[in-house]
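Archive entry: two folds, one per protein. Generate the first.
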Amino acid sequence: MADEGAAYESVLKDAQELGYAEADPAADVDGLDAADKIAILANLAFGGSVERSAVPTAGISQLQGRDVDYAKQLGYGVKLLAVAERMKLSGEPLPLSLRVQPTLVPNDHPLAGVNGVNNAILVEGDPIGRVMFYGPGAGAGPTASAVVADILNIAGISQASRGSNCLDPLLAASSWRRCVLVDQGEIRQRHYVRFHTQDAPGVIGRIGGCFGDGGVSIQSIVQFNASKAGAEIVVITHEVSQKKMEDALTSIQALPEVSGLAAHLGCL
């Protein structure tokens, strides 16, 4: 969609024909597979289990080409990201923030270069900084390799249950801490939103005022495709809680000049 300007349905069909997407693509395009993976990775990274069903999950099936194009004009690419963050350095239970959603990624970010069938895991910590693991995540070879790795892991766990020491003690349930997912309203991140509006004086100011009244700081606000039929206003915010963002969006959509919220994505 980013490289060729093609529509979502066309790109998905090509991916299925090439064997990179399942006949039923829901697990991939609706973010379900990414949510499974981030739940497992959070277990390993933070040392405790999380409730997979509680992970907020949005896929790319509703992603529109114009948002990919607008993001490119503003210096971003769009990626489906699964994110796990520790909300505090310590605590019992340890509060975590998890989410899966299409997200704007700055062009100079390491994840911006992850394209095609490749996947990446970016780990950020102190004092190591950023470390990225990168490689193909679809196709005959990568899939076969993953299946064999799963079989070996199952065999190892089976032997451990019979008294062998082959299971890493760091993964033993007795060594895990308690973790809990924070309320979705407490999740903090930047946002990209696109509104359909009238092309009238003062609309941008009223939208900005609603954000300001709601405690949402704006990084940029841009108007696209202004005409007699209306305009599209794209806003990128600074980091803010989901609760404050949702409250501000409710106020903006109540404005008579705003006909609707057309898109809402995350932003790094």
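Generate the second and append.
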Amino acid sequence: MKTGALILASLPPEEKDRGNEEISLFLPMYPLDGTTAIKREIAALRKASLSPIVVLTGYQKEILKNHLSHNNVILADHDTYRENNSGETLQIGLDAARQQMERAVVVPVGSPAFSPQTLEQLLECKKSAAPLCNGQMGWPRTYVFQEDGTSADLETIPVDDNGILLSLSDPGGAERIQQYFRAQRSTNELRCKTKVVLTKEEDFFGPGICRLLDYIDETGSIQAAAAKMHMSYSKSWKMVNKVEKEMGFPFLDRCNGGKKGGSSTLTEEGRLFIERYQAMTRDMRRISQNFFDVYFKDFQ
């Protein structure tokens, strides 16, 4: 799935912000963490290997275009920005991004405080998703574009990152964001990733097939599950057949078509196998983190 990014930077400051001396009236160029707010966001998105990056411009667009002239981003004009609210602006931005990518990581220019870990969690989810902290949704968010041109409803991903709730436009928001970045710089970014793969003569069960089986159980259809995984129907069947052959028991109860079409559900053995795999993965991640802390303590 081609994943890029969209930065919403077209709206003028709201009336309530015009008397706020704490923030610039032009948020994209607010001085932040040794650069500007929008260049800080571009750097964070680029570090996550997101490409292309689309910037929606409107208010003071010529100034912003000059500011970003050497940043290798795609500029999309939002000429009706004075007539649109934030929801309408988001849709205009998504329409522009849809021409360049299959999934977009979207962030308003006034919400630059998010961690690499939060971005990673969002990207691991193959659905449209928003981060959730302390019961509140924040930014950035991911939008998966569907064949009909719309974007799917958002799921929430719990994260331990209060930066997603911060905005430069909020009272005291600029200082809290500066504090967030100071704390982030003092945090060790070296991390450990653990992936559990089951094998016999060759690998046959890992995160991909586990997610596929979960989706089949959720949708009742291997075709719908394959679509969610952006995978071909035939490849999905090959993965399921391989697991069943290696383990010697069926993972799916299959009901062939008819007027209402066929359906597939997990067998009890299949469900138990997946639950054991997921439990083992959680335990392995915890154990790996403990060993990581021991062996790499000197690098923190």
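Annotation attached to the second fold: The radius of gyration is 22 Å. The CA atoms of residues 48 and 116 lie 7 Å apart.
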